[in-house]
């Protein structure tokens, strides 16, 4: 599906303050409703409407879903990583004597330490990614719709590194009500040439834009992105799981391969 904006366009992102600490069994939609009501846009309007996208860090989703596990020492942390690992992609020793593992986790995501996180959690614990981030996004979307009277798209985002590039970026690991991929194959550029391979990872780009205003240490785990209404859909859609490249399309899964 193609999801190109029409005419002139602008994208805005706001990360509101006031998101409370999240604990297990909290209703995220209920917690976020007053925060989202308080979002103020540059044109003076407030709140979240149809066509907006609410981007939520996976960490708060995991906390609400009770995904904390024991990690009182390196052995317990490694055990938590093992439990989330499907395939080891690469590993190397760290200066502190530990090891860095890049693995494919059970969601199909290739990440350091399987996405197991020990930052911003109580000492002696680690946080796993949501069990089903797409279902998490769908539930949050339903809850926001019931409370806000609007139906924004929802993205659950997480941070990952990228092959051949320094620095980490946020990407979508869960999505509801979003066209996650914009397939431009078969369309033509301004010179009339047909595009043969261009498929844009729209949901990842929105997640990365939201991270520019959320930040890692600012205590603002939620952002609202406006200006992407052309990718917000009435139906929840296929979700971010469809962004994971299938093994048969992965040229780098087993190293060098001639095709």
Automatic annotation (TrEMBL):
NCBIfam families per the UniProt record, alphabetical: F420_cofE
Q: Which UniProt keywords apply?
A: GTP-binding, Ligase, Magnesium, Manganese, Metal-binding, Nucleotide-binding, Potassium
Q: Name one Pfam family in it.
A: F420_ligase
The molecule here is called: Coenzyme F420:L-glutamate ligase-like domain-containing protein
Highest taxon of the source?
Bacteria
Alphabetized PANTHER family for the sequence: COENZYME F420:L-GLUTAMATE LIGASE, PTHR47917
- SUPFAM superfamilies linked: CofE-like (SSF144010)
- Coiled-coil residues are none
List, for all copies, the residue spans of the domain called Coenzyme F420:L-glutamate ligase-like.
19-227
């Amino acid at each position: 599906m193609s999801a190109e904006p029409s005419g002139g366009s602008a994208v805005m992102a706001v990360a509101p303050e006031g998101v409370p600490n999240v604990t297990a069994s909290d209703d995220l939609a209920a917690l976020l409703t007053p925060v989202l009501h308080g979002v103020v846009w540059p044109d003076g309007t407030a709140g979240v409407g149809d066509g907006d996208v609410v981007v939520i860090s996976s960490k708060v989703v995991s906390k609400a879903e009770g995904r904390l596990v024991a990690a009182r020492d390196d052995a317990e942390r490694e055990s938590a990583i093992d439990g989330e690992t499907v395939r080891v992609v690469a590993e190397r020793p760290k200066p502190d004597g530990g090891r860095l593992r890049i693995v494919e986790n059970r969601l199909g995501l290739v990440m350091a330490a399987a996405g197991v996180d020990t930052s911003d959690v109580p000492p002696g614990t680690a946080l796993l990614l949501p069990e089903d981030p797409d279902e998490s996004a769908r539930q949050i979307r339903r809850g926001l719709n019931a409370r806000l009277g609007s139906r924004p798209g929802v993205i659950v985002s997480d941070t990952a590194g990228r092959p051949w590039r320094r620095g980490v970026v946020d990407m979508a690991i869960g999505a509801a009500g979003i066209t996650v991929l914009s397939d431009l194959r078969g369309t033509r550029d301004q010179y009339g040439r047909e595009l043969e391979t261009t498929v844009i990872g729209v949901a990842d780009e929105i997640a990365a834009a939201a991270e520019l205003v959320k930040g890692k240490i600012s205590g603002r785990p939620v952002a609202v992105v406006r200006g992407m209404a052309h990718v917000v859909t009435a139906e929840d859609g296929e979700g971010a799981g469809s962004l994971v490249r299938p093994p048969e399309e992965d040229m780098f899964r087993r190293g060098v391969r001639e095709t």
